[in-house]
Amino acid sequence: MIIVEENKCDFCGTCVAVCPVDAIELFEAQIDILHDRCIDCDLCVWICPIEVLHTVENEATLA
Amino acid sequence: MKDEYDVIVVGGGPAGSMAAKFAAEGGASVLMLEKDRDIGMPVRCGEAVGADGLARFLEPNDKWIASKINSFRLVSPSGLIVDIEGLSDGGYVLDRRIFDYELALMAGNAGASIMTKAYVYDLIKDGDSIKGVKLKYLNEKVEFRSKIIIAADGVESRVGRWAGIKTTIKIKDMESAIQISVGNVDCKSNRLDFYLGSEVAPGGYLWVFPKGENYANIGLGVAGNHNKSKSARKYLDDFMEKNYPEASILTTVVGGVPCAHTLPKIAADNIMIAGDAAHMVNPVSGGGIVSGMQGGRLAGTRAAEAVRAGDYSYKFLTKYEKDWHKLLGKSYERMYKIKSAVSKLTDDDLNRTAEIISSLPQSKRTLGRVFKTALLKHPKLLFDVVRAFASV
Ligand SMILES: Cc1cc2nc3c(=O)[nH]c(=O)nc-3n(C[C@H](O)[C@H](O)[C@H](O)COP(=O)(O)OP(=O)(O)OC[C@H]3O[C@@H](n4cnc5c(N)ncnc54)[C@H](O)[C@@H]3O)c2cc1C
Ligand code: SF4
Ligand code: SF4
Q: Which pLDDT does position B267 carry in this prediction?
């Protein structure tokens, strides 16, 4: 699961551009990962210039 | 405010403003929507442009020119410095906060309506057919209908996706970039500096673009596939610590530069895509200000023609694709090949190339017009050009 590190994002849209399934929404000063769409490809994590996005194991979805 | 227009432009950057201006001048009723509070802010850009490209759109004005450029410095991976001086038709480092305003004013003065804080989140569709946009304006949901939409929404390029056009970019073609505007640095106000090499910016380059005396934009782009192991920020931190430890950082911005060739499809029924959203960026230099303006101009012009003809079909709009291909798209395909070749050069290759150039006397160093053009428009090409010369 992709998580956003709080107060770090610059809202530049680079991650949005590489997301293959349009699972990132960006407002003037807010970023949301649409978890129901996300396919955990990690491309957004790799491209972010300032390491805002991270992958974590999601216990909840395993249950 | 009306709720129906001939043309709706999404995005108030250089591409959007020029699309809105040329559509309005062609007689269409136009609305341009920008999600941010302020046109031109934040400035995610090194702000360097060639003078000749810009001159086609507006007269140079000291209001938005931070510095005038007539020389270049290239720094090879081993630190060898190559200066190329006395370029006659140079360029500028802009003040884009003011420049982008100026472009939006040109659109407004041509008759386009403009709204900021207007976040477009979807398209209005009737079956498959696009009828307008849905947006959040000051937290209210609003809908505007239009015959044509011009998607100039920058790298994110979601509007095109909603219309069913594939706009996602491959990670290796996206430059992951960061830039700081800094004071207290030693820079020359008429010179652009480029640093190359795998330690500084793998698959990209680092720039020092002066905005005045001791004041510069310093930034870099790293090819997306390299950003994974070490982020753009870390590359910049390392560079600053080594080269400008005393710099005072006034602002930091990050962003992505789509260094691919233009999307194969940039139009469909009722929609055209322009600027970064269509990947209209010189893939070698990453420059997209003037190309975005060119794309916007072509899209706006065609939109107005469509309104006059009452035909909003892909068949009619496809002329925009052809016009773009002829104007710049085709040459960017060639540039993309050069970019791929240049990205294979090792640090040793780059060092050798720098040695060859620096052994030339300054008077011969430009190697005629080839260099001048190559440098101004696509800095990294220099090395490829020199390599071509050297291997003869
Ligand atoms: C770090 C960096 C340095 C660069 N340096 C240079 C340089 O030195 N020279 C050069 O020529 N180019 C440079 N570029 C590239 C250049 O900045 C872009 O190519 C140029 O800004 C593209 O213009 P545009 O109008 O297509 O997009 P933008 O300028 O990005 O404008 C798009 C606009 O659309 C708005 N928008 C997006 N989504 C929505 C939505 N859903 N609803 C409403 N509005 C929306 C955005 O807020 C934005 O204002 C650089 C880029 C970066 C990231
Ligand atoms: S790439 Fe990073 S900084 Fe840019 S919007 Fe995405 S998470 Fe934020
Ligand atoms: S992990 Fe992949 S699918 Fe999920 S948000 Fe990131 S880029 Fe999109």
A: 98
Per-residue pLDDT tens for B14-50? 999 999 999 999 999 999 999 999 998 899 999 999 8
Nearest Cα of chain B lies from the Cα of A2 at a distance, in angstroms, of 15
Residue closest to B158 by CA, chosen among A25, A35, A53: A25
B299 pLDDT band (50/70/90 cuts)? very high
**C-alpha closest to that of B16 among B29, B34, B3:** B34
- Give the residue from B346, B339, B325, B327 showing the smallest Cα distance to B378: B339
Over residues B156-210, the pLDDT tens digits come to 999 999 999 999 999 999 999 999 999 999 999 999 999 999 999 999 999 999 9
pTM of model > 0.80: yes
Pick B232's closest partner by Cβ from A22, A26, A49. Answer: A49
Number of domains in chain A: 1
Output the pLDDT for position B179.
97
* Closest Cβ opposite residue A47 in set B167, B176, B252: B176
Complete domains list, chain B, with CATH: 4-45+97-169+261-340 (3.50.50.60), 171-259 (3.30.9.10)
Q: What is the CATH number of the domain that holds A12?
A: 3.30.70.20
The CA A31 to ligand 3 mean position distance, Å, reads: 13
Of these ranges, B144-148, B258-262, B385-389, the one predicted with the greatest mean pLDDT is B144-148
List the beta bridge partners of residue B82.
B74
Token reading at B343: 């990205």
Q: To the nearest 10°, report the CA torsion of B376, B382, B388, B392.
A: 100
Work out which ligand 3 atom sits closest to the CA atom of A40: 1
B93 lines ligand 1 (CB under 6 A): no
**DSSP class per residue in B183-223:** ES----TTEEEEE-STTT-TTS-EEEEEEETTEEEEEEEEE
| Average confidence (pLDDT) over B139-149 | 96
Residues of B in contact with A26 (CB under 8 A): 156
Q: Which residue segment(s) compose the domain that A13 sits in?
A: 2-61
User: What string of DSSP letters covers B340-383?
Assistant: HHHTT--HHHHHHHHHHHHTS-GGGTTTHHHHHHHHHH-TTHHH
- A interface residues, B as partner, C-beta within 8 Å: 10, 12-14, 16-20, 22, 25-28, 43, 46-51
- Give pLDDT, residue B82: 84
